[in-house]
Amino acid sequence: MIAWVNKVVALTSILLCFCDKDQVMVILLTGGAGYIGSHTARQLSGQGFQVIIYDNFSSGHREAVKEFPIVAGDIADADMVRATITRYRIQAVIHFAADSLVAASVTNPARYFQNNVCKGLILFNQLVDQNVRYIILSSSAAVYGEPSVVPINEEHPLKPANPYGDTKCMLEKILQRYHEAYGLKYASLRYFNAAGAYPGGDIGEDHEPETHLIPTVLKAALGQIEKVSVFGRDYPTRDGTAVRDYVHVKDLAEAHVLALNALRHGMPSTAYNLGSEEGFSVLEVLRTATKITGKSIKYEVGPRRAGDPAVLVASSTKIKRELGWHPEHKTLAEIIGTAWKWHLSHPHGYKVPSSGDSEIE
Ligand SMILES: NC(=O)c1ccc[n+]([C@@H]2O[C@H](COP(=O)([O-])OP(=O)(O)OC[C@H]3O[C@@H](n4cnc5c(N)ncnc54)[C@H](O)[C@@H]3O)[C@@H](O)[C@H]2O)c1
């Protein structure tokens, strides 16, 4: 029943966005030129929101968001954030901007606390000062650390196992306190493993370095890397390799739209897990990718990585029940299929290949 009511509310707000120019909500996407941000920008704009991208391009791509107004800036630049909020009359922020490599956060925690927490705080202070009332935070399954129960729901204790997870936990806590003190309403969305690409294949994942499994496997299928490293084959899982929950990036994007609409229609500030609720092992990903690409993909088994849990699978019951979120691209084959389409049409990502780069047939 609640899900049905939320769907009606969401539909009504979409109609309002389209019907009345004054009602068009303007959303600032920090880190909007990144992987998840660029997909969310599309999803929001397709539903009548006006999107402004704010990015320092440390890992983002202009080509991913060329149809939107772009402000090139750092979230720590309080003057530029303030000017952007005023100029575009920003009403809500979706905060993607962050560094997000777990291993790098272990060797260089200073960078992670600085970019994610200190700079995040500067941004939040501007939102409060400028009376922006809503924020959606990109949080992560990393806030849970090694899970004591799987599937993991939002009640699971927050015990991050690395500095990256610490930063997401801290941002969530800051938002909770800012909400209590200043009325800034928030939803923290804890993503599990974002994967896949927009079904048209014109935007997708392009990280440098690439540390995520699916794009790495597809790079091996394209012959761009020799083999895939499999970290550990002695986990207590069905084939000994680590099991993860892959959620399609377009479904993630849609969850931001639902959360935003719910916040403006009175939903209390809260946190939601976003996963497909199904786990796949590294070897299952390799097998599915082999089938979809028709290429043989070499891999090499090495030791486990420190701090890598055996199984991370979400319970997303809360967001399904409260906001009516239902992932459309649920199967691993669909997720890898859309990613493959993107990789085939953009073998060098957003980079235009130089004459020295080899092309894929
Ligand atoms: N990709 C995943 O599977 C995953 C999982 C859990 C959480 N997350 C979180 O989701 C968010 C988006 O992830 P992504 O995979 O799209 O990452 P991404 O690296 O593709 O995007 C991050 C964007 O933020 C920008 N940025 C970084 N620091 C900035 C700063 N100080 N000022 C302005 N812009 C800045 C980058 O240029 C980039 O465009 C991140 O917060 C990440 O921690 C991602």
The whole-angstrom Rg is 20 Å
Roughly what is the average pLDDT, rounded to an integer? 92
- Outline the low-pLDDT stretches: 12-22, 356-361
User: What ligand species are in this complex?
Assistant: nicotinamide-adenine-dinucleotide
Characteristics of this structure?
binds nicotinamide-adenine-dinucleotide; 11 helices; Rossmann fold; seven-stranded parallel β-sheet; 13 strands
In words, what does this structure look like?
The chain has a domain at about 1-195 and about 245-275: NAD(P)-binding Rossmann-like Domain (Rossmann fold), CATH 3.40.50. The chain has helices spanning about 1-20, 35-45, 80-90, 100-105, 110-130, 165-180, 215-220, 250-265, 280-295, 315-325, 330-345, and strands at about 25-30, 50-55, 70, 90-95, 135-140, 185-190, 195, 230, 245-250, 270-275, 280, 300, 310. It starts with a helix and ends in a 16-residue tail after the last helix. It has eleven helices and 13 strands. The chain binds nicotinamide-adenine-dinucleotide (NAD). Nicotinamide-adenine-dinucleotide (NAD) binds near residues 34, 97 and 98.
Secondary structure elements and their pairing?
Elements: H1 2-19, E1 26-30, H2 35-46, E2 50-55, E3 70-72, H3 78-88, E4 92-95, H4 102-107, H5 109-129, E5 134-140, H6 163-182, E6 185-191, E7 193-195, H7 213-221, E8 228-231, E9 243-248, H8 249-264, E10 270-274, E11 279-281, H9 282-293, E12 299-302, E13 311-312, H10 317-323, H11 332-345
Parallel strand pairs: 1-2, 1-4, 2-3, 4-5, 5-6, 6-10, 7-9, 8-12, 9-13
Antiparallel strand pairs: 9-11
Helix pairs in contact: 1-10, 2-8, 3-5, 5-6, 7-9, 7-11, 9-11
